Amino acid sequence: MTKSGPKPMVKEPWHPVQDLTEMQRRFCDYLAYNQGRTTYTEAAIKAGYNENRARIEGSELMKNPKIQRYYRYKVNDVNRSLAVNRTNYIQRLIKLSNKAENKEIRDNCAPLEGLIGKAAGLLVNVIQHVGESDLNELREEERRLKKINEEGLETQKLLNSKD
Questions:
Q1: In a shared domain, residues 101 and 152
Q2: Which residues have a Cβ under 8 Å from the Cβ of 48 and sit 6 or more positions away?
Q3: Do 25 and 71 share a domain, yes or no?
Q4: 39 and 67 share one domain
């Protein structure tokens, strides 16, 4: 006769997977991750059931209330993780941006970085309504900057030619 220790004060929370065998869990997981793209037979085979009885096993498994409960839980979990919300959207954009950067496709990074900034609320589109007098001032400033740029290029050419 062995003595057992004291019973825990708090009962461990119940989880639907506790009621299933490993093969039953794999069956449900395969179905949940391949919703609409697989059959009970294929899921039973992938879970490790005998190919000759896979069709019957798949059908019988889906009649089991414990399996139905875990399957609903798993489908909800999968769908929740695929839902588009702000956090998931930003994380996905960051992954895509990192992949583009790692593959040195730098042209694709800038638009992704812009989308990340907008989704995070860091970048905002600002629309300024400008009157005719303000527009003329902006055009004059643009001409002045172009002239300065051209003079700088000419100076650079002169310096390069002296070397």
A1: no
A2: 23, 26
A3: yes
A4: yes
Q: Is residue 10 part of a domain?
A: no
What's the domain count of the chain?
Answer: 3
Residue-wise pLDDT for 14-43, tens only, equals 777 788 899 999 999 999 999 889 999 999
Q: Which long-range contacts (CB under 8 A, 24 or more apart) does 10-16 make?
A: 16/66, 16/69, 16/70, 16/73
Tokens 């694709």 locate to 108
Give me 132's structure tokens.
């005719």
Handedness of CA 130, 131, 135, 141 (dihedral sign): negative
Residue 2 confidence class, pLDDT cut points 50, 70, 90: low
Within 10 Å of residue 109's Cβ, how many Cβ atoms?
Answer: 16
Rounded-to-integer distance, Cα 64 and Cα 35, Å? 19
The pTM score is 0.50
End-to-end CA distance of the chain: 99
pLDDT in tens, 70-115: 999 999 888 887 776 777 777 877 887 788 777 777 677 777 777 7
